[in-house]
Amino acid sequence: xxxxxxxxxxxxxxxxxxxxxxxxxxxxxxxxxxxxxxxxxxxxxxxxxxxxxxxxxxxxxxxxxxxxxxxxxxxxxxxxxxxxxxxxxxxxxxxxxxxxxxxxxxxxxxxxxxxxxxxxxxxxxxxxxxxxxxxxxxxxxxxxxxxxxxxxxxxxxxxxxxxxxxxxxxxxxxxxxxxxxxxxxxxxxxxxxxxxxxxxxxxxxxxxxxxxxxxxxxxxxxxxxxxxxxxxxxxxxxxxxxxxxxxxxxxxxxxxxxxxxxxxxxxxxxxxxxxxxxxxxxxxxxxxxxxxxxxxxxxxxxxxxxxxxxxxxxxxxxxxxxxxxxxxxxxxxxxxxxxxxxxxxxxxxxxxxxxxxxxxxxxxxxxxxxxxxxxxxxxxxxxxxxxxxxxxxxxxxxxxxxxxxxxxxxxxxxxxxxxxxxxxxxxxxxxxxxxxxxxxxxxxxxxxxxxxxxxxxxxxxxxxxx
Length: 466
Known about the structure:
Layout: H1 3-17, H2 35-54, H3 59-72, E1 79-82, E2 86-91, E3 100-105, H4 113-127, H5 132-143, H6 151-168, H7 173-195, H8 200-223, H9 234-246, H10 251-260, H11 263-293, H12 310-327, H13 332-354, H14 359-381, H15 385-393, H16 399-410, H17 416-465
Antiparallel strand pairs: 1-2, 2-3
Helix pairs in contact: 2-3, 2-5, 4-5, 6-7, 6-9, 6-12, 7-8, 7-9, 8-9, 8-11, 9-16, 10-11, 10-17, 11-16, 12-13, 12-15, 13-14, 13-15, 14-15, 14-17, 16-17
């Protein structure tokens, strides 16, 4: 073989294996945007992301929205950092200019799904070509929009959730009424503490204590022989209250941020979730201990309390999801979709239980089905997927398992066997919680590519029709 052919062959092999630095552009062509306009673009993108994050969006969605808005208006290569309580955005126009960096602190997050829906609609309008000045003006209007419902509506919606939990367990009318009264008292106590700007940790303690106090009184009246309270199962009342106070926790958001790689945000949300849960636990434990000191007790159920009939489960799940959507500020469309998805979740849960799966796995399957269908429906109806998914999986929160575990630990008298009796239901509750988080997150990730494919197909069809 001639030397020239050998050299060409060697060169061809080398090009196939190695990259050629001379073919790589050293710099990117950046559009010329004035410094003032850069600040206006970054400010709009940052404020939009901050508002979305404060009302319930995930860190991934916030990062995508900020970078996408900046790119639409001509700023490519924007750097975004999202932590639990702050968002920073930076843009460097060139080597000869100082970078423009903005940062905003995210105030205490409070779900407002109607506002989140309007913010996502604004984001879509921006990507479709809305003018910068018009986008800034529209955002100011959305930012000043008050919460959709008055405080009294939120309080009664929280009490309605307890009614749904009682129906879910097939409770008698007297238990449903008492669950409503206990939850209403807890919601009023927590609303009063919020007005006094008491930290939410102590608000959770107060809510758990009020629920336990009402339940102790009901149990004492039943043991004393008062007719309406004799056959009342107090565990359902406490379970309703536990589901009420755990319904607003960002389990799905924390798991999604952890999977997306936003470690700081995930750790912050998980820590907040842990503290809120500990607040409920402490409130219940304080109430049970005070009742024990005064000679009152709540009978410890020997077995897990089963759900009622399938009709009762569906009815209870719908009421719970509607209540959650209401006190999260959702509109009519989100409420309707949440109710339908909660039906899907509870049916999937019941069917998998009948197939022999454990409650933790069955909860994961129910959350998976609700979140997978939810993200597809949310795309077609322009709804926040986190809004419909959160409300749909609340009926599967393990309220009775948490109470059985806490009550068992209080009545254990410090013995190893007694502690094991209490720990077993708590382990079950933890497995169900993990199953809900994993199933909901998996459903979102399985549905996202399919949603993108459907969006591409719909755009292609729209172009063909034109």
